[in-house]
Amino acid sequence: MLLRGASILESLGFPLGQGTNNIGELTAALKGLEASVRLAEANEDVLLIADSLYLLQGLCNCDKFGQDPGRPNNGLWSGLYDVLCRLYSNGSRVWTQWVKGHASNAGNRLCDNLARNAAENQCRYVARRKK
After folding, report:
1. What CATH architecture applies to the domain 2-122?
2. Residue 91 and residue 87: Cα distance in Å, rounded?
3. Residue 97 β-bridge partners
């Protein structure tokens, strides 16, 4: 889910087919950051909020992961590194924040619902946008 202030810019869930939770977390972050490249204004900071320590800790080293072809999920880490470089070249800074999963965070619950609906129905699921 992408927000600017209190306005939802995009929220989308999509099926992965066969994949692990880690693949889902990395793919969601990659898709969100790719949308940020498209939607962020020059020099606009991006805050990535996630309940995945695997993702957030890995982002600190994703340039190293992209260089290790034997690393699990290497292609996704390499894609994350590339999209971070595109954001940085636009003047954006990327910040991260961890939230406890399956807790009382409304944004986290919405993202879980998007992912669950897409996986169960094997189709894209778009939440209604707030104006």
Report:
1. 2-Layer Sandwich (3.30)
2. 7
3. 49
Q: Which of 39, 124, 34, 38 is nearest to 76 (CA)?
A: 34
Contacts with 93 (C-beta within 8 Å, 6 or more apart), sequence order:
45, 46
Mean pLDDT by 10 residues, the chain (131 residues): 68 71 88 88 87 89 68 88 92 88 70 69 55 45
Q: Where on the phi/psi map is residue 129: left (φ > 0), alpha (ψ -120 to 50), or beta?
A: beta
Q: What is the DSSP string of the chain?
A: -EEETTEEEE-EE---SS--HHHHHHHHHHHHHHHHHHHPPTT--EEEEES-HHHHHHHTTHHHHTT-TTSTTHHHHHHHHHHHHHHHHTT--EEEEE--TTSS-HHHHHHHHHHHHHHHHTS-EEPPPP-
- Picking from 89, 114, 115, 98, the residue whose alpha carbon sits closest to that of residue 37 is 89
Q: Which residues contact 5 (CB under 8 A, 6 or more apart)?
A: none
Question: Domain segments of the chain: what residues?
Answer: 2-122
Q: Are strands 125-126 and 12-13 parallel, antiparallel or unpaired?
A: antiparallel
